[in-house]
Amino acid sequence: MKYRKIHDFELTREEMILIQEKLSQEVEIISYKGVPKIVSGVDLSFQRDKAIAVIVTFDYESLSLIDLTWAIDFVKVSYMPGFLAFRELPIFLKAWEKLQCEPDIVFFDGQGYAHPRRMGLATHASFFIEKPTIGIAKSKLIGDFVEPGYKKGDYSFLYHKNEKIGIVLRTKDKVKPVFISPGNWLDFNDSLEFTLHFCTKYRVPEITRHSTFVYSKFKREGAFVNQKNSRNFIYFTMVIFSMVMNTLAPLMTSIQERFSISVAVSSILPFISTLGTMISNFVGGFFIAQIGYNFFIIGAIIIQIVGLILFAFAVNFPMIVIAVFLLGFATGGVFLTLTSSYSHLDGKYQNFGIYNAFFGFGGIFAPLLVSLFLRLNLDFRFIYFFHLVLAIVILIWVLSLKPIPNIRYETIKFKEALNIISNKFVYLSLLIFLLYSGTEIGIITWSGNLFYNVFNYSKEFSSIVLSLFWIVFTFGRLLTEFLNKKFTELGTIIYFSSSVIISIALLLIFKHYIFFLFVGFSLSAIFPTIQKYTNQHLPKKWLGMYNGLAFGSTGVGAMIISTSMGVVGERNFVISYLIPFITFALIILAAQKLRIEKAPE
């Protein structure tokens, strides 16, 4: 939601008083026309030098929660009684910008008109958000009143200097009253009626009690983690899990020779890996909200450790298959958690190009590690001992420092998920994810066989070429933001998809690895661009479910496209590498459709 900035916040006390006195002349205590349909409740809480603003949005008639958003930031203005708005509004407005549902009225846990200068938090906020507001305070700031009756709904008026400034309301039998006051653009009767509507079985009305409850839950589950440290953990973990995921491709020929299996039989490995990833993402999309981010990633890392142990001690091909499934399942769960956590960081800590570039760093290191082990004549399974140590380090990091907050949401129901999937904007973007990821994985997975069987490169040199590919690929991802500004997001997808087709054609014609590097650069910006584009245009409440579907669709694409390339490659790898011509032509068509498709609100 947008807001109107009417003044700065880091001011002297005298400047704050002048602003309050000026705005108080514009307050309108007038009757609200009609009945609100959607209302929001706001609460802010502090911990050391940081604060969290929570906004909950309810359907007024049914009292059902329809949206939840929050923001965490450093507090820049010191506490001064009577001037809380200057301290709290900057953080509230960060949360307000993330709000998807436009409320008719906003309740604040704090004062409204019941303020020495008639400018409490609720009243002050109204001028920024341009919405009618109500303040609900647990204690009196100023004024005199007669104690109301002891039954729920009993009330008396609060006066200051012979002016009515608020209402003292008993919200529950024989409990302390709360102090409500209009903020702006509604009157005392409206404030009383709308507040009573949210008085259920608790002293504090549900509209502000729920936001306080959410804050308490966030605090228990680590919402106040240092965002810079959280981002660094996400980047590091992305590299490590990318290394594990990208170790399989340069080892395919070694696995084929060690267990005496054909290319067609070994093609089951990327299929099984992506099956595990796909299942993890689809299941995670539904249940990560209930389980919580921190608990979910802990479970995924433990599964990763089990898979690495199994791979390291594998004595036959079936053990490799099981290990690959577990590693794929764990990777899917970790990437889903990392992406969801990254999306919740403040904007200054987000850059999807850099985020995806760290996946590329893993792709650079993995084949170099494989090449090193092969040159030392070590069994390829020893590589997975190295990965095992790093996975244990990450697990200890998560358990001890909790870099990922265990944030939870209400689970999206199956019918709601179907409505999300059936949206044209959603399924077109998911199609791009499916086609791109399946083709990218296929191009990388079977590159060793293309170089070894068709180009007659050695295994060691093929691994080096793959590392060079990842260097160029990662460099391109670092340029994603620049490219998006130059060509727009959808323009980047269309132009770079066309470049993929041209680069693969040149690779197959001239059989020179330099064109494989062109392929890497052409692929680089497509995934982070569609990821950024969709996350910016979809409603916030859809994002958790959508990310699960997006990563799940990449698994489906890999199962279909990468496996098909392996099966076709059993006969002819040149023909196999013609499949990307079709998939990227479809990506261009889907991106053109997205250009004219309106994003859901």
Question: What is this entry, summarized?
Answer:
The chain is an alpha+beta fold and 601 residues long. The protein contains 23 helices and 8 strands.
Highlighted features:
23 helices, alpha+beta, Growth Hormone, Chain: A, eight-stranded mixed β-sheet, 62% helix, 2 domains
Task: Write down the CATH topology of the largest domain.
Answer: Growth Hormone, Chain: A
Number of strands: 8
Mean pLDDT: 90
Structural class: alpha+beta
Strand content: 5-15%
Tell me the CATH architecture of the largest domain: Up-down Bundle
List low-pLDDT spans.
none
Number of domains in the coordinates?
Answer: 2
The biggest beta sheet reads: 8 strands, mixed
* CATH fourth-tier homologous superfamily of the largest domain: MFS general substrate transporter like domains
Q: How would you describe the shape?
A: elongated
Distance between the termini: 12 Å
Explain what the structure shows:
Strands 3-2-1-4-5-8-7-6 form an 8-stranded mixed sheet. The longest helix has 32 residues, at 227-258. The chain folds into 2 domains: 13-220, archaeoglobus fulgidus dsm 4304 superfamily (archaeoglobus fulgidus dsm 4304 fold), CATH 3.30.2170.10; 227-596, MFS general substrate transporter like domains (Growth Hormone, Chain: A, Up-down Bundle), CATH 1.20.1250.20. The protein is α+β, with helices and mostly antiparallel strands and 601 residues long. A hairpin with a 2-residue loop joins β6 (155-160) and β7 (163-169). The model has no long low-confidence stretch (mean pLDDT 90). The N and C termini lie close together (12 Å). The chain is elongated and about 95 Å long. The protein is 62% helix and 10% strand. α14 (424-445) packs antiparallel against α20, α15 (447-454) packs across α16 and α18 (489-510) runs antiparallel to α20 (526-537).
